[in-house]
Design brief:
There is one protein chain. The protein is built from 25 helices and 5 strands. The protein is mostly helical and 592 residues long. It folds into 3 domains: 209 residues, Orthogonal Bundle (Clc chloride channel), CATH 1.10.3080; 221 residues, Clc chloride channel, CATH 1.10.3080.10; 136 residues, Roll (CBS-domain), CATH 3.10.580. The strands form 2 sheets. Strands 3-4-5 form a 3-stranded mixed β-sheet. Strands 1-2 form a two-stranded antiparallel ribbon. A hairpin with a 2-residue loop joins β4 and β5. α13 packs antiparallel against α14 and α15 packs parallel to α17. The chain starts with a helix and ends with a helix.
Length: 592
């Protein structure tokens, strides 16, 4: 049976036997399983590559292959992405957000599998990025294309995109609650109670799929036993501020590094320079290799001296002050390394790097404080975990996701109070200096903008060319007042565009401009339209979005504005026409 016939019969059967809500719930479960399976494949593939490449490395020797591996991985990922899948890597999540906002939630089918290969090559060979963003792209693409296959509208496809993203994060971290909140906070613009259930189902199925196939393979392999003490709160306040400032540095370092790479002449130069710089960073600071979660495990378990072992210059040093210096340098270099990886052509995201940097910030804060012996000792594990939450909150502007994600993956529910406190302080500190998240900033750097509210999102769905009014009668600039008076008699509008023989708008004349002279016989034959016309308060371009159009309406105070395209007059747009189109969109969306 052809696939199209099967889908058609399936859709007919579901219309007869299943409600829309039941159908969406079933699809969310399927998407959760498939996305969970994709996450398992990616995680297993990356770990297999890393183990194969580094298992023979000796701690006491300089492992010069660290210099070559990242360049090889980035080059391979770019070649595979461009010439096989026609889908070059990058951050991924900003593109998903833009597709949801501007392209009716239609994610290209190739993204269902392309990022599995390119990110595995990138991270497996030491690219200093995370797997979470590629998996979110993969899960989102699975959700979008499932919705398209089932003939669902854009709103329901968006919900399924959220289901795929939640399942992917849940499968990677084993944190179904945090994954759902991430999907709501970062991916989806709004959520209702009915939409919340499919997200839960998809997240649970993604986590279960991962558990069944690879067991409870947690990112952090320690048992958290420390108790929260209220006496630590002043230090958590200071930590929250530091996390906010580090988040600000992280975002700016990533953006400036990527912009610097974009300034290079060719992609070959980007891969050579980016891969070389990254390779030398990894050579001198091996903890930067890959995602880096093993380093955080060593710090939390009190094995901080072991992180120096694979560095050719620091391995023989056991001075605690050198550990602090080494980790501070990693904090400074990790965002740059992540940007080099992605900007050079690799595939990955800044999700894991933000957690990684946050963990090191928290450890350095508590370790330094304890080293100097001032006041009460601070628990290293608690501050490491809480700072992970703080930096993630600041970088991604997702405080709730950070709180629940860290609490779930560590079992550190005892830390809910400091997690909430530090997440909030970090978020406030970062947004004081930088309103937008890194994802929004990256889109703005490309000339793309996300709606800031639901109203703005609805407005941007309205095409300016669809609300043009063409019943305004034009008049030539060389015409006389008598000709315009004749048009007034048959026109239902009080604005008359002045258009020349090339259909270019020269100006406008309103009924108020001629009211006093239009019946004066002596002036009807002597006054020309070019002497009466004046410029409109603003001009709309056919290529502008509706948000820009509304800004021009507000700044000019006008109720009607002309629209031109390539210098040609098309018609007028009125506020009332826009409001009517907005109302219809709103009603249609509520019905969906």
């Amino acid at each position: 049976m052809p696939k199209t016939d099967f889908i058609t019969k399936l859709l007919i059967w579901r219309l007869r036997h299943l409600s829309n809500q039941s159908f969406i719930i079933i699809l969310s479960g399927i998407i959760g399983i498939v996305s969970g399976l994709a996450a398992v494949i990616l995680k297993s593939g990356v770990h297999a590559i890393q183990e194969f490449l580094t298992e023979d490395f000796y701690n006491e020797y300089a492992n010069f292959l660290y210099i070559l591996y990242p360049m090889i991985g980035i080059t391979a990922a770019y070649i595979v992405g461009k010439y096989i899948f026609k889908d070059v890597g990058g951050h991924g999540i900003p593109d998903v957000l833009f597709i949801i906002s501007k392209k009716q939630s239609l994610i290209p089918r190739v993204k269902m599998y392309s990022r599995l290969f390119t990110s595995a090559l990138t991270v497996g060979f030491g690219g200093s990025v995370g797997l979470e963003a590629p998996m979110v792209v993969t899960g989102s693409a699975i959700g979008s294309n499932t919705g398209l296959l089932m003939h669902l509208n854009a709103k329901k496809r968006t919900l399924l995109i959220g289901c795929g993203a939640a399942a992917a994060i849940s499968a990677i971290f084993g944190a179904p609650i945090g994954a759902v909140i991430f999907a709501i906070e970062v991916i989806l613009m709004e959520i209702s109670t009915a939409s919340f259930i499919p997200l839960l189902i998809a997240s649970v199925m993604g986590s279960l799929t991962s558990m069944i196939l690879i067991g409870k393979d947690s990112i952090f392999n320690f048992n958290f036993t420390e108790n929260f003490k209220a006496s630590h709160m002043p230090y958590y306040l200071l930590l929250g501020i530091i996390c906010g400032l580090v988040s600000l540095y992280f975002n700016r370092a990533v953006r400036r590094t990527e912009l610097a790479l974009e300034g290079l002449e060719s992609q070959t130069m980007r891969m050579l320079y980016g891969g070389a710089f990254l390779g030398f960073m990894v050579f001198f600071f091996p903890p930067i290799y890959g995602e880096g979660y093993n380093t955080l495990n060593q710090l939390i378990e009190g094995k901080s001296a072991e992180i120096l072992n694979r560095s050719p210059f620091f391995s023989v040093i056991e001075n605690p002050y050198m550990i602090i210096i080494f980790l501070v340098l990693i904090i400074l270099f990790k965002p740059i390394a992540s940007a080099l990886t992605i900007g050079s052509g690799g595939s990955g995201g800044i999700f894991a790097p933000s957690l990684y940097v946050g963990g090191i910030v928290g450890f350095v804060f508590a370790y330094s404080k304890n080293l100097f012996g001032f006041h009460i000792p601070l628990p290293l594990a608690s501050f490491t975990l809480v700072a992970m939450c703080g930096v993630m909150s600041g970088v991604q502007h997702a405080p709730l996701s950070a709180i629940f994600l860290i609490a779930e993956i560590t079992g550190g529910y005892e830390l809910f109070v400091p997690l909430m406190f530090v997440s909030a302080i970090s978020f406030i500190t970062t947004t004081y200096y930088q309103k937008d998240s890194l994802y929004s900033l990256q889109l703005k750097d490309k000339g793309k903008f996300l709606p800031e509210s639901k109203d703005q999102e609805l407005l941007e769905l309205i095409d300016i060319t669809h609300v043009i009014e063409r019943d305004l009668l034009p008049v030539h600039p060389d015409a006389k007042l008598k000709d315009l008076t004749n048009l007034v008699k048959i026109s239902k509008r009080n604005i008359f565009p002045v258009v020349d023989e090339k259909k270019a708008l020269r100006g406008i004349v309103t009924l108020d401009d001629i009211r006093d002279i239009m019946f004066d016989q002596s002036q009807q034959d002597s006054v020309f339209i070019r002497d009466l016309m004046h410029s409109p308060p603003e001009i709309l371009l056919a290529t502008e979005n509706m948000q820009k159009a509304m800004e021009k309406f507000e700044s000019s105070g006008a109720w009607n504005l002309p629209v031109i395209e390539n210098g040609i007059y098309l018609g007028f747009v009125s506020k009332s026409r826009i409001f009517n189109a907005y109302r219809k969109r709103l009603i249609r969306q509520k019905q969906d």
